[in-house]
Each structure stands twice: as structure tokens, then as C-alpha cells.
User: Which sequence fits this backbone?
């Protein structure tokens, strides 16, 4: 192959055959190899590939460009993405900890409120967002929740995504987004879970969702590729349910917020200073040494949410839990789109397109992990995920893993639901935490609600108070029967 000049080390071989019996396409293996080197700032040994051997505008070239981009110094990289190295002021009306989708949605909604003229600072410890849940997400949206509030939050998310340009002031730079409506299909193999699906469908239908309950025969008739013999019931909705381009939504929240004057700074919040009576956060300390006074503080720090709250002496039942993703190529692609299928084994998979699919899951032993632990569980695919998938969809006997990664949920151990709104005593500390596996789709409604609280001291559109912190101290779970 032109350009392939390094075959000395076993490093490239590791990419060509990451595990026994698993082989990657050569070109992909080469680019990944170089990307790995570039991401550690080693650019002098990018000798597996000569740029001249790549076709212009190919996915490979873009991947390599991204890798080279990632090899720059942190400061250079941050500047390239519109981050300032330090805040312009010492005082801000709103300081947002975490500049991923929740923080950026809140910042953007604040700029849209005519009653808000304040200064907003977004602090982000990692401007590459490499480990943020926002980046590592499945990026799907559903109406199949069991609580009216979660359904309404997602319905607004769906409307928002599909009218993104309108919400962004009709800006013609903003693309028109659509939801890829392959739907979610929950499968029940026990009477207990079938009863949950039936009850959920009633709540969903009452709230305008198009959920249909399907017998195993009906599932087989609509999707002949499933094995259904062990099933009792399925629950499917294909209306505003499926994949959406969460990265583009995130990108436009950020771009528009910045254009409206919000400052994004690459720095880490290292401490919070409370007032003497303990009822207010007076200032945030930054790793760089700066101290910033604040009116409001929004905790949008994802898996670090509990750590941030702890700095204000507040306990938050949120911990990082690992969730794994595999991208697969099928030797014989399915003859119709694969709904996001939630198998009774807990394994789930969805359509990507072009014979490619994404699968997700986690180990049966699912403890809290270290905040920086993103190591891959290589045994899990062969021990649990693949057997479950191939049993449910026999055509998936012949699939090849082309990519895989570990992400982290900000897992709410009380009820796997969001914690939002103010702390009852530290009134200027607002939560945006614990979204577990459904935060991307909730970001439009959550950012809007948080901005309303800051500006008006109450919710003006959707009442989010059922998700406030008070339920944590009372031990009152908002039970959601449809958690993935
Ligand atoms: C594998 C996986 C699949 C998922 N699939 C879906 C899905 O299909 N649909 C869906 O709706 N949701 C999904 N989710 C959940 C969704 O991605 C998250 O709920 C959502 O992205 C959370 O956004 P966030 O902004 O709160 O947190 P994050 O994206 O984690 O961002 C938090 C940010 O805060 C920054 N930060 C942390 N501490 C500090 C500090 N001290 N100072 C400054 N910055 C700090 C971090 O660097 C990070 O950028 C999935 C999540 C995972 C992991």
C-alpha cells in the first residue's frame, strides 16, 4: 500500500489485529495508529502513513487532521476552539462549571432571555471534551419514558432539535436537523417487565407519544431478523424517536452563546468558597490560581458533579459508571433499519447506516469507577455483548468490531434521574447533574429551565421542580421504569 513505510514495530500490528480473530481494515488501522501517536504529541514518527497517500476529502484525511489538531498544546487547541486562557473579569453574574451540552445549553438560553443582561462565564477543564459524556454518547432520543415529566422533557428536546435553525434566530449557517426515526424497541421476556411496558405505554399515549405494544408475532412480521421465541411483548415508537445529531446541537449552543458574549475559559474549578452563613457560594477558585466572584453557580460538571457539590459541603448521590460502545460492521446488513433494541439481557444496539451498527452495554458487576478510568473491558464483547446480540439477531453472528470505547454515565444512585434546580440552603448553587443515560436529549429543556430559574426565580415553561434536590434529602425517588 502506498505510504506504508513502517512495519517494524508491533504497535501498528496491534491496530491491525487488536485482539485474536479481530481484524481492522488496513487503512483504518493505519490512521488510528497515527492518531494514537499524534494524541501523545509524538508527530515525528507518523511514519506509517504519508499524507500523499490519502485521497483529498476522505474520511481518513479528516481523521488524521483531527489527530494532528489534537497533538497541539492544550492552550493552542483551546484557543482554536474559542476558549480564552483566562476570564476577562473578576466577577460574573453566572458561573457555569462544565462547558459540555448542559452548561452550553444553559449559557445559550440565558442569552435568549430579554430580561437577562448579566455576564456569563463557562469554565471547562478539558476543551477537547474527549471524555465528556456529551462526546461519547449514543445520541438518541425517545419518548418511551414512564414519567410524564421525562416524556415532556424529551418531547421538547425533539421539537427543539427539529427546529434548531428557528430557535437559533433563523441563522442560515445552522443546519436543518431531523430525527432518524428508527424508534426504540423494548423487549420483554418476563411477565413482570411486560406489565411495566403496558403501564408505560398508557402514560406515553396519554402524553401524545405513538408507542405501540407488539406481540412476538407482530415483532417478527415487522422485523423478520429478530429471534422472538422467548419474548412476551415488545414496545415500539417510531415518532420522534431514534438518532439525532447531538454534536451539532452542542456545537450551535456553544457558538451562539459565544457570539452573544458568553466567555468560555479553559480552566478547572478547584474549590468553592461559601459565605459565612453558609447560604451562598461567594466565589470559585480556579486551578490557574484565579478567584472569581459569582452571583449564581451552575454545576454542569457531569461525572464530577458530586465532587463539585462536595466542595460546597453538599452530598449528591452521583457516581461515575462505565458504559461501553462498539461500532460493528455486518457481513450481511439487515434488510431494514434496526430500531434501538433494548434486549432483556440489557444489551442494546441501533442502526448507524450502510451496514454499520452501534451496540452498547456494561458488565454485570457495575461499580463506581475512578473519574479518569476509561479503560476498555475487552472481554465483555465476546463474553456478553456479542452472544446476546447474535442470539436476538442471528445475522449478527457475522459482524466485525471496527471501533470501541468506554464512556461514563453520571449515575444517580437514588433514581437514575436528573437533579436540577437550587440547593435548598445554598440558594445560588444550581444542579444540572445525574442524567445517567438520557442527558443529551434533555439538554434543551434543562438548559431552558435553569435559565428561567436564574432570571425569574421560577419555571415559566415546563415545571422541573419534581427533579429538585429536596427529593434527595427526603430519599424520595422519582421512579422511572424505562432506564437504559
Ligand atoms: C455511552 C453513553 C451513551 C449515551 N447515550 C445517550 C443517548 O443516546 N441519549 C441521551 O440523551 N443521552 C445519552 N447519554 C447521556 C448523555 O451523553 C449525558 O447525559 C450528557 O451528555 C451529559 O452532559 P453534561 O454536559 O451534563 O456532562 P458531560 O458531557 O460529561 O460534561 C461535563 C463537562 O464538565 C467538565 N468539568 C468537570 N469538572 C470540571 C471542573 N471542576 N471545572 C471545569 N470543568 C469541569 C468536563 O470536562 C466536561 O466537559 C449517554 C452517555 C454515555 C456515556
Assistant:
Amino acid at each position: 500500500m502506498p505510504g506504508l513505510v513502517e512495519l517494524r514495530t508491533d504497535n501498528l500490528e496491534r491496530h491491525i489485529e487488536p485482539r485474536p480473530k479481530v481484524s481492522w481494515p488496513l487503512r483504518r488501522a493505519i490512521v488510528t495508529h497515527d492518531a494514537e501517536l499524534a494524541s501523545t504529541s509524538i508527530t515525528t514518527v507518523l511514519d506509517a502513513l504519508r499524507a500523499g497517500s490519502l485521497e483529498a476529502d476522505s474520511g481518513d484525511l479528516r481523521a488524521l487532521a483531527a489527530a494532528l489538531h489534537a497533538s497541539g498544546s492544550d492552550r493552542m487547541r483551546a484557543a482554536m476552539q474559542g476558549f480564552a486562557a483566562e476570564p476577562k473579569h473578576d466577577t460574573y453574574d453566572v458561573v457555569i462549571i462544565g462547558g459540555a451540552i448542559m452548561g452550553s445549553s444553559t449559557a445559550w438560553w440565558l442569552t435568549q432571555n430579554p430580561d437577562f443582561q448579566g455576564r456569563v462565564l463557562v469554565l471547562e477543564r478539558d476543551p477537547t471534551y474527549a471524555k465528556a459524556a456529551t462526546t461519547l454518547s449514543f445520541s438518541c432520543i425517545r419518548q418511551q419514558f414512564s414519567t410524564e415529566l421525562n416524556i415532556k422533557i424529551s418531547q421538547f428536546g425533539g421539537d427543539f432539535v427539529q427546529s434548531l435553525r428557528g430557535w437559533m434566530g433563523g441563522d442560515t449557517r445552522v443546519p436543518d436537523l431531523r430525527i432518524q426515526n428508527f424508534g426504540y424497541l423494548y423487549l420483554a421476556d418476563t411477565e413482570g417487565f411486560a406489565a411495566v411496558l403496558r403501564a408505560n405505554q398508557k402514560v406515553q399515549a396519554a402524553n401524545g407519544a405513538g408507542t405501540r405494544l407488539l406481540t412476538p408475532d407482530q415483532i417478527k412480521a415487522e422485523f423478520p431478523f429478530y429471534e422472538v421465541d422467548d419474548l412476551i411483548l415488545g414496545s415500539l415508537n417510531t415518532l420522534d424517536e431514534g438518532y439525532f445529531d447531538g454534536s451539532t446541537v452542542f456545537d450551535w449552543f456553544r457558538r451562539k452563546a459565544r457570539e452573544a458574549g458568553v466567555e468560555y475559559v479553559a480552566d478547572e474549578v478547584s474549590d468553592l468558597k461559601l459565605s459565612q452563613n453558609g447560604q451562598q457560594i461567594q466565589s470559585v477558585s480556579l486551578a490557574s490560581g484565579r478567584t472569581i466572584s459569582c452571583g449564581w453557580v451552575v454545576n454542569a460538571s457531569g461525572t464530577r458533579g458530586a465532587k463539585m457539590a462536595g466542595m460546597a459541603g453538599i452530598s449528591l448521590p452521583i457516581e461515575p459508571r462505565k458504559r461501553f460502545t462498539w461500532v460493528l460492521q455486518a457481513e450481511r446488513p439487515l434488510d431494514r433499519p434496526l430500531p434501538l433494541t433494548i434486549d432483556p439481557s440489557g444489551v442494546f444496539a441501533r442502526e448507524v447506516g450502510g451496514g454499520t451498527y452501534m451496540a452498547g452495554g456494561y458488565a454485570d458487576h457495575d461499580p463506581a469507577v475512578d473519574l479518569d478510568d476509561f479503560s476498555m473491558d475487552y472481554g465483555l464483547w465476546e463474553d456478553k455483548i456479542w452472544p446476546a446480540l447474535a442470539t436476538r439477531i442471528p445475522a449478527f453472528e457475522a459482524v466485525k468490531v471496527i471501533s470501541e470505547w468506554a464512556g461514563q454515565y453520571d449515575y444517580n444512585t437514588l433514581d437514575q434521574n436528573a437533579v436540577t434546580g437550587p440547593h435548598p440552603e445554598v440558594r445560588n448553587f444550581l444542579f444540572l447533574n445525574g442524567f445517567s443515560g438520557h442527558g443529551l436529549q434533555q439538554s434543551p429543556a434543562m438548559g431552558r429551565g435553569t435559565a428561567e430559574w436564574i432570571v425569574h426565580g421560577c419555571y415559566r415553561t415546563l415545571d422541573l421542580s419534581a427533579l429538585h434536590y429536596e427529593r434527595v434529602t427526603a430519599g424520595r425517588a422519582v421512579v422511572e421504569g424505562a432506564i437504559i
Remarks:
- Residues 1-10, 37-72 have pLDDT under 50 and may be disordered.
